[in-house]
Amino acid sequence: MLRSQITFDSFIRGVIALAIAFGIGLLINRLSGVLLPFFIAWLLAYLMFPLVLFLQVKCRLRSRTLSILAAAVVVLGALTGLMLLVVPPMVSEFSKLGGLLHQITDRYLGDTDLGPHILGIIEQYTAEYQSQLLQLIQEQSFMDAAQGLLGYLWTAVSQTVNFAIGMVGSLIVLLYMFFILQDYEVISEGWVEFIPQGSRQFVQQLVDDVESGMNAYFRGQGLVAFCVGVLFSIGFLIVGMPMAIGLGMFMGFLNLVPYLQTLGFVPMVFLSLMKAADTGQSFWLIFGLGALVVGVVQVLQDTVLVPKIMGSAMGLNPAVILLSLSVWGSLLGFIGLIIALPLTTLLISYYRRFVLESHDAPGDEA
Question: Which partner from 3, 123, 308, 320 sits 20 to 30 angstroms from 138, CA to CA?
């Protein structure tokens, strides 16, 4: 096998390449505030393009502009429907919580001296605050009052300006997304022309492998998260957990990042307390039933959903999937859980391509 020697010319080219890469990194860091809306718009366009293409090709909307507008309407409609599904029950439960707190206050504070004592303390501090405020007003000069008023006005103006800047930034993101979707194929395929001819094929293959791996991962993980959300909702409905559907779908959404649904225990504790105060049942019984649902769904997810769905999507053995999640999660935490499967698939693919195939290729000479 022939070995390439490092020459002075190749060394200089390598140093120049590293310097250029370092300079590009500094430039990107310097322009991060300007580039961030573009990258956000590119991500949104990447997520919406399959829907736009479906509407244009399958639904025979010949105009790309009409397809983009129709896709935006569909996405907004889906988000609105989700809000209508989740928000009214939440408002109802919070209203019920307010009534329960009022009942608890009347029950435990109304028949004792503690309630009037607390009210007396509040009135005392309120009176002292009022007297101090009146004294402060009398002692301050007109100029101090004017400075305070100017400070208040400046705060209001700055908040208004920040809100306006945020709205303009959102509008810029939407405009970027619209124009990217207009020529998505040209932009996504034309960037390779900026790569030197000698490295173009390798870079193109690398990007294609990463894109295919990420597409398969997000499709599979999204399907897993939806199935887990449905299972959580059914389980919470069976055990009588308040806001069962909203809580279940919320925990399913958290499952887009593996094992992040454990954060769902926080609202589950809150809802268990609320139901216990409302019905008189034991809090530990209600919370224990909810935790049992979480445990059963987690077992189904790890033993059935992830191996079947992600194994089919990523082309990995279930044992390799579990090992990959464990290893990368231990090394990189939550980020490792996100990139575990696509990174493992990419490493296996390149090992087969550049190690096994090159080793087994005929004509190699020692």
Answer: 123
Q: What is the identity of the amino acid at 133?
A: L
C-beta neighbour count of 293 within 10 angstroms? 24
Percentage of the chain lying above the pLDDT 90 cut: 4
Query: What does the radius of gyration of the chain's CA atoms come to, in whole angstroms?
Result: 30
For the chain, give the mean pLDDT.
Answer: 75
| CB burial readout 306-316, b (16+ within 10 A) else e | bbebbbebbeb
Dihedral (CA of 249, 254, 260, 262) sign: negative
The pLDDT tens digits for 343-357 are: 777 777 777 666 665
Kindly list the distances between the CA atom of residue 330 and the CA atoms of 41, 336, 347, in Å, as whole numbers in the listed order.
32, 7, 18
pTM of model > 0.85: no
What is the average per-residue pLDDT within 161-190?
A: 82
How far is Cα 54 from Cα 50, in angstroms, rounded to an integer? 6
